[in-house]
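Dear support,

I submitted the protein below through the web form. The confirmation email said the job was done, but the results page showed an empty box. After a refresh the structure appeared. I'm attaching both so you can tell me whether what I see now is the final result or a partial one.
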Amino acid sequence: MLNRYAVLLVAGAAIFALDASAASAQDTTRTRPRSTKRIPITKEAPGEVASTPAAPPRVDTVTVYKTDTLRLTHTDTVNVTKTQTITKVDTVQQQIFPEMMRQIGGFYIGVAAGSSLPAAPFNDSDHPGWRVEVPFGIDPIGSPLGVRVNLGYSRYEPHTFAKQFVNSENAQLMNADADLKWRLVKANPFSHRVQVYAIGGASYNRFKNILENNHGVLSVGDAIANSNGSFSTVDNDWHNGWGYNVGGGMEMGWGITNLFIESRYARFKGENSNISHVPLVIGLSWY
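What the results page shows now:
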């Protein structure tokens, strides 16, 4: 745009200069001297005036150049943002094996309670009694055979007719059993250990106030009844007797704890007869 104005200014200046020069050339009266010579004028024809021929007109030529300069700068800016999303999925295949139940073994100890049912002829003189036990032993892992010691205590209430022979004292029984424990069947229902076992072994017993009946002969400890069924003396002391016990049970385990229920048949030698009873207990043991 500035160049355009500059060209116009230059052109105007040139025109102004040329006009001034032409005016100066045409105004000759100021510089030329006056002539006193007369110019003859003759008539060539009637009504016409002869004169000298006029000078041809002067033509001034002014050439104006106009230059338009157009500069077009076109800049296209294209920003390309390339986003690449990579999703990586790692697939890990893990082989899942069936959950194996923890096998429990080694030393254990427990506590149980229940009842002791007198067997014939012991049940003739006494009602079923209550019982407590403390079992402890070893169940080796990898072997179905273990060992167990069981300490027990029972107490029985005599029938009405027997109270006269024992001075209304309750019969009492303590035992210590040394048994072999044979685990027969194992299962894992509902993620718990279940096993069935058999047990049996020797039994050492201490007892008192148990009315014995040996084919109609009554006795309490060392005291034996007369032929009429009366006692001259009363024996309320403790006595000993060896015997055996055999039975079975089932136990269910959670962690290191087992819940078990067990029943046995126990028989031992009294002072004048064999005495039998059936312990039935439920208890807990811990490894």
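Response: this is the final, complete result; the empty box was a page-load delay. The mean pLDDT is 80.
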